[in-house]
Design brief:
Elements: E1 4-9, H1 10-13, H2 18-25, H3 28-36, H4 40-59, E2 74-79, E3 85-92, E4 95-97, E5 99-105, E6 109-116, E7 120-128, H5 143-149, H6 153-170, E8 181-186, E9 189-194, E10 197-198, E11 202-209, E12 212-220
Length: 222
């Protein structure tokens, strides 16, 4: 594993007042965006995602090339000039850093993975394990994916998490179209096709963290 990971419980994060978290963790531009979010759950997800990601960057000395005295020195942007969601970029003291970062949320947890360097793109997703996943979930899987997982609900959740992770790794501002990303487990290894083309030089993995699945996509840049 050549990337770092941080997973934290939303319940534990809620024990600290939002105002205190904002003061200690958010860059002024992040705080400006935070206050513009009207939906309470989305606002919390944004704040917690920044806290978890920055804690990872601050505590892992292999990630940052500059000394970090305060988390507010770090600015994480995940919107382009048109306001579209894109892969996060990391700046420290106004300087762009060669850090690949992906953030994900579930109802229970917030996670971030990061890696220093420009050789690969990272994507991550976290999903709660359920013995009865949302019936709508299978509608977003391709025919081959449904055949591949059969009636195994856990495998359906794993496949969905991997599709999300791949999208986050390759996203350049386009919206998520689940049927265009196909993930199949072939003899114990996950393979992926995007718009019918095999996604080469890609490593997909899923592991269990407590009662959740953590999916990671590592895609080599071309």
């Amino acid at each position: 594993m050549d990337w770092s990971i941080n997973i934290q419980s939303r319940c534990k994060l809620r024990r600290v007042a939002s105002e205190q978290l904002c003061l200690h963790w958010l860059h002024e531009l992040e705080y400006e965006h935070y206050t513009s979010i009207n939906h309470a759950n989305r606002r919390e997800a944004f704040l917690f995602g920044r806290v978890v990601a920055k804690r990872l960057i601050v505590e892992d000395e292999s990630l940052a090339s500059r000394e970090i005295n305060k988390a507010t020195q770090i600015y994480i942007s995940s919107r382009d000039g048109m306001g579209r969601a894109v892969r996060p970029t990391v700046m420290i003291d106004g300087r762009l850093q060669p850090i690949e970062l992906s953030i994900s949320h579930s109802d229970q947890s917030v996670m971030a993975i990061a890696r220093r360097g420009n050789q690969v793109r990272l994507g991550a997703d976290i999903q709660t394990i359920s013995s009865n996943p949302n019936s709508q979930l299978r509608l977003w899987l391709t025919e081959k994916e449904r055949a591949n997982i059969g009636h195994n609900d856990s495998n359906a959740v794993k496949t969905w998490a991997l599709k999300e992770a791949v999208y986050k790794a390759i996203n350049n501002g386009e919206r998520f179209q689940p049927h265009q990303i196909e993930v199949l487990n072939e003899d114990g290894r996950y393979q992926c096709r995007v718009r019918g083309q095999e996604l080469l030089d890609t490593t997909l993995s899923v592991r269990q963290h407590e009662d959740e699945f953590v999916a990671v996509a590592v895609v080599k840049k071309r």
